Amino acid sequence: MAGGPTAVLPADFSDFLTADADWIGVDAGSYYLLTKGVTSLTAIGDFDSLTADQLAFVKAHVDTDHFQQAKPEKDFTDTELALQRVLSHFDISEYQTINLFGMTGGRLDHELDNLLNIFQERYVSLLPKIRLFDAGNIVAFYHAGDYVISDLYRKKYLGFAALNGIQHFSIADAKYELHDFSSDKACVFASNEFIEGQDVKISFAAGDVIAIYS
Predict the structure, then answer these.
(1) What is the pLDDT of residues 160-184, one digit of tens each?
(2) Cα Rg for the chain, rounded, in angstroms?
């Protein structure tokens, strides 16, 4: 849970709060989780978006072994520090998904950072399980390969964005199909749709793709 505007959290966010989950609060996200009754969490970040009183509140309610404060001048973003914490302290094989909240709706550079830095090689083992949620979208992340995408979230649209060029990209069993598309530039394939009762299949030989349920 990062520190983005809470107004763009999913409408059903309270359901996630009541689920059996391990929480990491990133910067202001840690304070927000504590105020919503999450009592067991890890708090990470430079906490420069919190007031002194809010930071004191976080420190008072988070065990010292689960509190990690970084300097504002650092090589990694607060979100990346959280991903690194997942890699070093959690057995990801025990988790079906790694859900990210509070990542969008604020500063655009932060939003792009949260979308793009996930593709760094150091996070490759996390990538298949990461889902980013906000009020209108759910985002999944894919390296090159073959994938079957199910209509798990019952959204109307399914879009794809190739972030750094793409080779031999195909979309099958969707309303709008695509066959063996390649480009050296970033490109977006928006407003596709599931066909009732069918999974969508995508494949590509090189590049990074995000799938956006909206």
Answers:
(1) 999 888 999 999 999 999 999 999 9
(2) 18
